[in-house]
Design a protein that fits this description.
Bound molecules: zinc ion
Strand content: 25-35%
Number of helices: 3
Distance between the termini: 99 Å
Number of strands: 5
Strand order of the largest sheet: 1-5-4-3-2
Radius of gyration: 26 Å
Largest sheet: 5 strands, antiparallel
Shape: elongated
Order of helices and strands: HEHEEEEH
Structural class: alpha+beta
Length: 143
C-alpha cells in the first residue's frame, strides 16, 4: 500500500508542473488576444514584408515607379507611422482591390519597411463588374 501511495504522489507532482506551464501560456495568449481585438476593426489581411528603404525619398520613388498605388490613409502606431496605399486600378469610392501595400516608418531608425498583402490583384474582376454597371447607366442616360 505504501509503495502505491508513493507512486501516486509522484504522479500528482507531474501534472502540477504541467499546469504551471499552461498558466504561463494562457497569460501569453491573453495579451495576444488583446492586441488582435484592437486590430479587428481593419479587414483581415496578411501582410508580408517586401523590402526595406533607407530614406523616405527612396520609398516614395519606388511607389511612384510602380504606378498602381494611390495614397489611402495613415495609421499612427506605437512602432511608428504606417502609410497605406491602395490599388489605383479601382475607383476610390468602390470596392477596393485586395492587393495593397503600406510603408512602415520605423520609430527607432530611419528605415522604412514596405509590406504588401498576401492577396493578389482582383481589381480586374472588380472593374469588369463596375464597368458593366457604368456602361449600362451611360447608355441609359444618353438615349
Ligand atoms: Zn489591383
Amino acid at each position: 500500500m505504501k509503495r502505491f501511495k508513493q507512486s501516486k504522489s509522484k504522479y500528482s507532482i507531474v501534472p502540477q508542473y504541467e499546469s504551471d506551464g499552461d498558466d504561463y501560456e494562457t497569460n501569453a495568449d491573453q495579451t495576444i488576444g488583446k492586441v488582435s481585438k484592437k486590430r479587428r476593426k481593419q479587414r483581415k489581411k496578411m501582410w508580408i514584408f517586401d523590402r526595406k528603404f533607407t530614406s523616405k525619398i527612396e520609398a516614395m520613388e519606388f511607389i511612384k515607379s510602380q504606378k498602381i498605388w494611390g495614397y489611402h490613409y495613415t495609421n499612427d502606431t506605437k512602432d511608428g507611422m504606417k502609410k497605406y496605399y491602395r490599388c489605383k486600378n479601382v475607383p476610390r469610392r468602390h470596392i477596393q482591390c485586395d492587393a495593397s501595400i503600406y510603408l512602415h516608418f520605423m520609430t527607432r531608425s530611419f528605415d522604412i519597411h514596405l509590406y504588401k498583402t498576401e492577396s493578389i490583384h482582383n481589381c480586374e474582376s472588380i472593374n469588369a463588374e463596375y464597368g458593366s454597371q457604368k456602361a449600362g447607366s451611360t447608355t441609359n442616360g444618353s438615349k
